[in-house]
């Protein structure tokens, strides 16, 4: 009996811990930086903690500046500090740092700085953080919080964790980044870029740049896919377009439905219903799309095209007026995984070519977008032709390739991964 009670106690503790972690994530989300990328960073002048000399943000005009808000009494701040320091080492010489402490006790701050000396200015006027004019100017609801200020004095990024700072700095200073569209939102889990006036793509960092797409019309908006782990995705999307956003799922793999529980209902292709339990446990109400249906967003129509192959319910979306679409993983993003069979994939490629010709589609945004891997009509055609060649026995993929697939055919800039069971 005692053993049984112990087991129940352990399980209860595990459930409670999981719930607490989820609650903490939710609580932290509402306190993420409120100032948006591109806004003017409020100037401030504060004294150095151990002297009378004042330092202003405007003194650093023309440079990137990390403004870090914290306090020595803040446990979260102390935990994140080493991670932030490590992140800054990688970009030494590229960014200045202003550390703004909300300590009220001079002795406590002096003791902390003696134990953890830094080379950048630590500023403090010893006022309570919730009463500080800086707190109000930067709309702080949580510490630690950081902002990165660009050389022109505008907000270039922000966050509340050391890992978030890593993401921000890499995005700003990594000159090899292939995504060039303007950043409109960024946190440690997702980064939104603007494609055109009413279209955005968001990228996560957990599964090969897993991508979501926000599409706005005059009356409403839809979001295609929900990534792996993108806490607050619904609020983020709705803050960008200032209107309710409906969620539409391209297919039911785990890297595309992660934040779907934030919605009361989602649109999905019923053919993928069977694979949902293996990829995501959710009780969200499902509404089923039909092939050829149109999402009328008000002055903007998005047509649904079923393209099974990657999964039974893989779905593409076409903006007929703009002559582009959203293909998710239907044609691979350069690395096509055929979980059904090659005949199905071939039929979808051939069918999509008819839509491309009908609407003059120039390209598709894929499910894992890197900035230079749009799915072109040529790619769609090549996928179909390679599937046909395999089925006809003209080609065979290599075997023994790491990754768990029986065969991998790599030609024309695309990999097709398949198994014996798919050769029909």
Descriptive notes:
- With 424 residues, the protein is an alpha/beta fold.
- It has an eight-stranded mixed beta sheet with strand order 8-9-10-11-12-13-14-15, covered by helices on one side. The chain has a five-stranded mixed beta sheet with strand order 5-4-3-6-7, with helices on one face. It has a five-stranded mixed beta sheet with strand order 16-17-18-19-21, with no helix packed on it.
- Strand 6 and strand 7 form a beta hairpin.
- The N and C termini lie far apart (56 Å).
- The relative contact order is 0.08.
Write a short abstract of this structure.
The chain is an alpha/beta fold and 424 residues long.
The major pleated sheet works out as: 8 strands, mixed
- Silhouette: elongated
Class derived from helix and strand content = alpha/beta
% residues in beta strands: 15-25%
Strands of the biggest beta sheet: in what spatial order? 8-9-10-11-12-13-14-15
How many helices? 9
Chain-averaged pLDDT: 87
Radius of gyration of CA atoms, rounded to a whole number:
25 Å
End-to-end distance: 56 Å
Low-confidence stretches: 1-29
Helix share bin: 25-40%
Give the strand tally.
23
